[in-house]
Amino acid sequence: MEVKLAETWKCIYSIRMREFESFLVEENRMIGRAIMFDSNEWEILLDLVSDGILITDHACNIVKVNKAYERMVNRTAEQLIGTNINDMEWRKNNESSAVKVLETRTPVTTMQQTVDENGKKEFISTGMPMFNEHNEIMYVVNCVRDMTDLHELKRTLEQVKQMNQSYLEELKGLKERAIDLDGLVAHSKEMINVLTAAAKVASVDAQVMLRGESGVGKEVVAKFIHKNSTRTGETFIKVNCGAIPDSLMESEFFGYESGAFTGANKEGKPGVFELANHGTLFLDEIGDMTLDLQVKLLRVLEEQEFRRVGGVKTIRSDVRIIAATNQNLEEMVEKKTFRKDLYYRLQVYPIHIPPLRKRKDDIPYLIQHLLETHQRKRAIQIRIDPDVVELLCRYDWPGNIRELTNVVERMAIICTNNEILTEHVPQEIFGNFHQIVPKGLQEELELFEYQKLKRALALHKSTRKAALALQISQPTLVRKMKLYEQKYATDQ
Question: Boundaries of each Sigma-54 factor interaction domain copy (predicted)?
């Protein structure tokens, strides 16, 4: 079977460049060189096309497909050629461009959907008729494009837009309610979720359990809840349960009467439950509380009353409890080191605060907030180089916000001309070079260069980009890093 090569190619081209359609139709009648379907030139020509090509005859029989079409439908040319379009499985629920072209004798575009073991696929197929000198359709060239990934990307984009709109509405609602953020930075979607949850529970007088690693900002969230609750004008008291000796913990919580124990104040002393009456008591590191005190805390939560150490008078106290821990309370309950009944009493409204490495979108805003705080203290203006911010965003911050606060303050102190540059980034983040004592000028220069190379690699994440930034060749950078790591890395 023969077909005119020039006619076929121009039909494919016209699908992509419709403005030449009338010209190509006219050319179909004039060009006469023909070759066989199995010629090398014909095979190469079709396989160069990135879209799928399906050619059918006047009876809808498949006479040729290219490699792209084989990949799209996951079938070989041997399986497809000779098959009639109308007998194919996907035709049950789809309109064929080839069939429509034969019916209308004009170019036709159709949408098609198929389902196989890889899932649902979507295609757009444009068919172009090829006429002979008697104005009869000899072949239909169908150009097929897989739209699955594009449509999936579009759906994902719509979901992202909806999520962003939801976050904007939540933030708008928070602003309309005049919520006091008080240093709480929430720009990542993770922290917006935390902020939204905290805002919801703030107006409800329920117990809250803040979970998260040390240094993630549990106290800041606790203060946020207090300041936006009905108790905002009352006392907020923080107690670190891990910092109070076991022997003093009960008296710190419930106070004591005069003469209750040796060394006690003659007038006695109120405890934090008494001092926080009508306010909020933030119990940090609740997992460090002794089992004996856990029993007494549970009684206070249930009955809202207690007695001072050495006292007989019952004192009533209306206190809201916000607890926090970085420990696995569920595991502690299993091991019976934390009371199950107290766990359920405190876990009324749990909020998990993610670590800084899981919400890196917040880092630039936290840096800016910390710098502004430092600037107010010292009454100066400090500029930070964008490269420094990018470097800090790449670090995982095992110490979370507490570590970031320490680093930002240190850079603000040591920087010159009130400008924080990459050389002011603490060396321990990218290598403890300061632990190596140079043996001479040459070694000091090498250590300085090693430090620069490591920071460039940390910033740019590839040897090619780092070499380009340092204005050296990539082989030179790789060679120097290998040399320095062999010489100095084991000393760190």
Answer: 184-413
